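Input sequence (232 aa), recorded before submission:
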Amino acid sequence: MDARLLVSLSGVTTRTLHRCADLAAELDRRKVPLSVLYAARTGEGPVTAWVRTRRAHGDSVLLHGYDHRITPTHRAVYLGKRAEFAALPAHEARLRLIAAKAALDVNGMTVDGFAPPRWIASEGTLQALREHGFTLCADLVSVRDLVSGDVQRARVQEFGGPSHRTETVRCFALVLAAARAARRGGLVRLGIDAADLARPGLRQAFLDAVDVSLENRAFGTTYGSLSRTLAS
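Predicted structure, token format:
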């Protein structure tokens, strides 16, 4: 069975937007769609306008939390502000999702599912997502159908830590992991933060990982397309 290649991009800001557009253009040349992870509190501006354009182009948009700058009031463990939904009970997750959906409505944004910051979602978050009508949650190691309960296991392959000394190793590991996943079939999940695109070595390795996946007969798709497949 040919693999399905899911490429996701997070960290889109006004400072990184030109690099994000460059990556999207590279993927367009490869006929690989993009899944953009969008924080609801982004607000109106060039980032939201670009994300709308990409969605109209056929890309997917996943809700990527509400506001990563605000620390949740409840934490079982400390995971940092960016792990916004990692340890929330259902009632607090509900409140954040209500705020997020209101912000999406103001921005005129439609989303295809949910991808928690740092790819970690608590059980309370999963419960709240179902209550708010979300059909898909993409976490670190799986893609969950929130309607049927089906789970497709596939780990997101990313660069990880910021150390420059291990950059070569991390680049090699990403390309190797993509090749192995594509040969196995199923899902190949590649994710990149826009900040990594500023480093030429990381950018090129990410594109190499996309290319090696395609060479091993993976075909590009989006989380939105996957969500519709799961629902059918």
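Checked by second reader. The beta strands are 4-10, 35-38, 60-63, 136-138, 142-145, 151-153, 156-157, 187-193, 219-221.
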